[in-house]
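Project standup — Tuesday

K.O.: blocked on the structure for the chain from last sprint. Re-posting the sequence here as requested.
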Amino acid sequence: MTSSNLLFAYDRLSEPYLRFYANLRYISPRDGLKRAGPYSAYRLNNINIGIVTENSTTNEAINLVKYLINGFDSYYTGLKNLFKANEINQ
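H.V.: unblocked you, prediction finished:
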């Protein structure tokens, strides 16, 4: 789609397909990660997570890392499941 009757001309580009595990392609990153997994799934044996925080927010940071690793509800299943990793270190 092109427009030249506005302040400036532009072209609208279609959204690119993103590659995920097994070379599957999706436009939505969320759909691709949920349905196929990241492009590098099964290549990582271990994932290391680190967070720098102030003393006043240490407990919140620890809880955030737990949610990242283990997931919550059925909406997000966690890094270990997502990346098919054997171990996640914090």
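K.O.: great, moving the ticket to review. The mean pLDDT is 85. The first helix runs from residue 29 to 35.
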